[in-house]
Design brief:
Chain A has 174 residues and is of the alpha+beta class. Helices cover 24% and strands 13% of the residues of chain A. The chains are: A alpha+beta (174), B alpha+beta (457). Chains A and B meet through strand 2 of A and loops of B.
Chain lengths: 174, 457
């Protein structure tokens, strides 16, 4: 079998690279350029006066707080297949499955917990979901609470989270 | 013994019995061959057509499950042609299959899923406007649920009720796309071995109502063990899982093949005995209705031994491991106690049948007999030390080593069940079998041997 092999040249072996000084000079140049800009014009500093000022640049690819999507009839789209829990590297998704009685599917989650304190917001659960039932498109980037238990989101809380980018209903279980 | 002949499979030669089935040789030699309908216990049926191999001198590919081995046979189980045949048959199999793996309990141990990964992985050439619909949730009885859409019509389940249990409850009705497994109208699947069809079913058509939706199979850890339901000692797999922040739990028992003991199957009662094993466990040490700590318990036990040292009776449960029975026997000799293990309580003639179930409901009564332990009922004694024997007898003081919460007595000490420890049991035919430890509890209770070591020290 023919194999496509690309040989990538190795960098860093030239005299200039081994000297390090040119590279250090390049870095320091950038630092001083910003220092000079900021000192001369204070308004150019990229600072957000959070929380009075909220970020406006959250895109639809931003991995915010999770939510569970709905079907057209407002029921939960999740079929409790445990793909998200299997993919989760932090093991922070806890699902209990039960029989779904309305005939749409056989299975649905009886309980669905995400421990957001353990979650690393990697988005693997969203990737793994075959039903487009879990998403991280709420745009919510901060979650506050008074106790550890406040950060363990249950099924109702996850279903109540709204998508921030217009798509409300699961694309696979609509 | 019939004649052995040489056959060549994929350029390697093997010795096999003349006239035996080719697929048996392939399975024995672990040569990859896909199949749904063939099963070593049920024989060849030849309906799934998955086990196609090429045989030198034959025009078309042949099914390995209905080909008899002949002298000088040359077989090819791999190659472009045969892979194409398998892919095409699989494609036909998948025309009406719902492909609802996410909600299917079989996902992870499904032959169709495995073969698709091996031979499929292609888009179907066949497009139909709508798949044939079937009933998704049919309760066949005996804890078996049928999903007609997922069925590949391998007829393993119907052949099981015909050939193994001879109860003939299941049959395939309808033709073509509308063929489906069913029971007779108004009749249910009901025989003491019915749940074996769940293991036999290569796909998710038959699932166990008992295990359904409890766990995905890829989370389960499996150990080899032996059922303690009766003296037959059927080999089982214990599937258990310790979920995060929870304790180790057994989710199901499955039969493990052992041709000397149980073959491929176990009875439903044995299969479901995992529930009683974990429910209402004795976890606390109790002295006269009050919970105590271990050093107090050992002190109290020692005091009782000293008070009644002239008149002690030790009762042994015939379900304990051989190692445990021997340790108790030695302990009893050391303290000069009478040892009894009445076996009549374990007799249950109603349980007995001609397949696997034995009327002796004790797993290790052979060891009691081998050690010549007294099986008669004990007379009244000063102190009775009961090691989980189901009966109780008259005594002035009573110490119960117990796995479950159904005991009273002056001193109750919890002990580990067979799933929480390992050891041997000897079945009614004298076959000694090893059981691995399945459960590793968060708060383990001591085994009998650990208790006796603590008492001795």
């Amino acid at each position: 079998m023919k194999q496509n092999i690309t040989v990538i040249p190795r960098h860093g072996s030239s005299f200039k690279d081994k000297l390090f000084l040119p590279a250090i000079y390049d870095g320091v140049k950038v630092t001083f350029k910003h220092l000079f800009d900021n000192v001369t014009d204070i308004n150019a500093v990229d600072t957000l006066e959070y929380p009075e000022e909220q970020p406006t640049d959250i895109t639809d690819r931003y991995r915010g707080l999770h939510r569970l999507t709905h079907r057209a009839d407002d029921t939960v789209a999740c079929v409790a297949c445990f793909m998200c829990a299997t993919a989760c590297p932090a093991n922070c998704i806890f699902i209990e499955a039960t029989e779904r009685e309305d005939g749409d599917d056989e299975k649905m989650p009886k309980s669905f917990f995400i421990d957001t304190l353990e979650c690393v917001f990697c988005g693997y659960c969203v990737e793994a979901c075959p039903c487009d039932a879990i998403r991280m498109d709420t745009g919510i980037f901060s979650l506050t609470g008074n106790s550890r238990e406040d950060f363990v989101l249950n099924k109702e809380q996850l279903l109540a989270n709204k998508g921030a980018f217009g798509e409300e209903i699961s694309c696979a279980r609509g | 013994m019939s004649e052995m002949v040489e056959v060549v499979v994929d350029d390697r030669s093997y010795n096999a019995e003349k006239g035996s089935l080719l697929i048996d040789l392939l399975i024995k030699e672990q040569i990859k061959v896909p199949y749904f309908c063939y099963h070593e216990a049920l024989g060849a049926d030849g309906n799934c057509r998955m086990c196609m191999v090429e045989i030198e001198g034959q025009k078309r590919p042949q099914i390995a499950c209905d080909t008899f081995i002949k002298e000088g046979m040359e077989v090819r189980s791999t190659g472009e042609n045969i892979e194409k045949v398998r892919t095409d048959i699989l494609e036909l199999e998948l025309i009406n299959h719902p492909v609802d793996c996410p909600v299917c309990d079989q996902a992870g141990e499904c032959s169709l899923q495995d073969f698709y990964m091996d031979y499929g992985l292609n888009d179907s050439k066949i497009s139909i406007p709508e798949k044939v619909k079937g009933l998704k949730k049919v309760d066949l009885g005996a804890n078996v649920m049928l999903d007609q859409e997922r069925c590949v019509l391998c007829a393993r389940c119907t052949r099981f009720t015909d050939k193994i249990t001879h109860s003939h409850e299941l049959g395939i009705i309808g033709r073509g796309d509308h063929a489906r497994v069913s029971t007779l109208p108004g009749k249910k699947l009901s025989n003491p071995y019915a749940m074996n069809v769940v293991d036999l079913c290569p796909v998710g058509a038959l699932t166990s109502k008992d295990f359904r939706f409890k766990q995905r199979v890829w989370f389960l850890k499996t150990v080899n063990s032996v059922c303690h339901g009766c003296a037959k000692g059927c080999n089982i797999y214990i599937d258990h899982n310790k979920m995060k922040y929870q304790d180790d739990v057994i989710y199901r028992f499955r039969p493990r093949r052992n041709d000397d003991v149980n073959g491929f199957f176990i009875c439903d009662e044995g299969r479901l005995s995992y529930k009683a094993l974990q429910e209402e466990r004795q976890k606390k040490m109790i002295l006269k209705h009050k919970e105590i700590f271990e050093n107090e318990a050992l002190g109290a036990f020692q005091r009782l031994l000293d008070i009644y040292k002239m008149s002690i009776t030790v009762l042994i449960d015939a379900n304990l491991y051989t190692e445990e029975i021997e340790a108790i026997f030695d302990f009893a000799k050391k303290i000069g106690a009478n040892v009894h293990a009445p076996l009549d309580v374990y007799r249950d003639e109603d349980f007995h049948d001609d397949m696997l179930r034995s009327s002796d409901r004790a797993a290790n009564s052979k060891t009691i007999e081998r050690l010549k332990i007294e099986t008669a009922l004990p007379t009244k004694s000063g102190l009775l030390i009961n090691f989980n024997h189901p009966q109780s007898f008259e005594s002035d003081a009573l110490v119960n080593f117990s796995t479950h919460q159904n005991r009273n007595g002056d001193l109750i000490l919890p002990m580990a069940t067979y799933a929480e420890s390992s050891g041997h049991i000897c079945n009614e035919d004298g076959i000694d079998q090893y059981c691995e430890q399945a459960l590793h509890m968060n708060d383990p209770v001591p085994t009998v041997i650990e208790w006796l070591e603590k008492v001795g020290s």
